[in-house]
Design brief:
CATH architecture of one domain: Orthogonal Bundle
Largest sheet: none
Structural class: mainly alpha
Shape: rod-shaped
Helix content: over 70%
Distance between the termini: 65 Å
Number of strands: 0
CATH class of one domain: Mainly Alpha
């Protein structure tokens, strides 16, 4: 096609720009799309080159230093595990002793204290009964005696009043002993026994808690030791790979 006029030439150039523009855009998109993978590949290659160019002696020194630190951590973890085991044993032993003591106190109370206190209460009650009977008999004797004598009324009244007061006190003493005996059986002994039984229950729970805590602590310490052992094994493996003949040949080639 022949272009003779300036207007025809301008129109041709505009048409050419419109047609070429989509092709340029497509080429630009293709370039952008392919650029990202190539960049990632370049980064990976660069990282590999850095690893290859790393000084083997320096890497070995770093691993040896890390291995020494890991071994110290492992030793500390083992010591912590041993100390934890000793502390757990002490806690369990203490709980066992306290439980044994609580059980002995309960057994002593039932076998010794209860019978003794019941016996004392019975003796005291019997003494009060006897005192009451003696006071009543004494008053009766005085009344019979004064009926057969010619003592002055004032003297007789004084002696009889004294006998009546003694009888009244003996009666009150007997009533108090009877109340104490009932209270001993219905309240005091059951309450004291219940308190000792609760103490035994509490010590049993403390012993179980100490045993559970010991198991949990032993598991935690074991996991810590295992973790440190794994770290030591990993570093030893890496160090062995560096010291292997294959790694030495590769180092000489580089």
């Amino acid at each position: 096609m022949r272009l003779s006029t300036p207007g025809s030439i301008l129109s041709f150039l505009l048409l050419l720009g419109i047609v070429a523009s989509p092709a340029c855009v497509a080429v630009r998109k293709q370039t952008t799309t392919t650029q990202a993978p190539s960049t990632a590949s370049a980064a990976a290659v660069e990282e590999e080159e850095e690893e290859e160019t790393e000084d083997p002696a320096e890497k070995k020194a770093d691993l040896e230093r890390d291995l020494a630190m890991a071994r110290r951590k492992l030793e500390k973890a083992k010591m912590d595990a041993q100390n934890g085991e000793l502390e757990s044993r002490d806690s369990i032993h203490k709980a066992e002793n306290e439980l044994e003591l609580a059980r002995k106190q309960l057994a002593h109370f039932n076998a010794e204290v209860v019978p003794l206190r019941r016996e004392r209460a019975a003796i005291s009650l019997q003494r009060s009964k006897d005192g009451f009977e003696e006071a009543r008999e004494e008053l009766q004797q005085l009344e019979m005696m004064y009926q057969q004598t010619d003592l002055a009324d004032k003297t007789r009244e004084i002696v009889l009043s004294r006998g009546r007061r003694r009888l009244e006190l003996a009666k009150r003493d007997l009533a108090a002993d009877e109340s104490e005996t009932k209270m001993l059986e219905s309240y005091e002994l059951p309450q004291e026994r219940k308190k000792l039984e609760l103490e035994v229950d509490a010590k049993e729970r403390e012993l179980e808690a100490a045993r559970r805590a010991a198991k949990a602590a032993a598991f935690d310490k074991s996991m810590s030791v295992q973790s440190e052992e794994n770290e030591v094994a990993k570093l030893q493996k890496q160090l062995a790979e560096i010291n292997s003949p294959k790694a030495s040949k590769k180092s000489k080639k580089s």
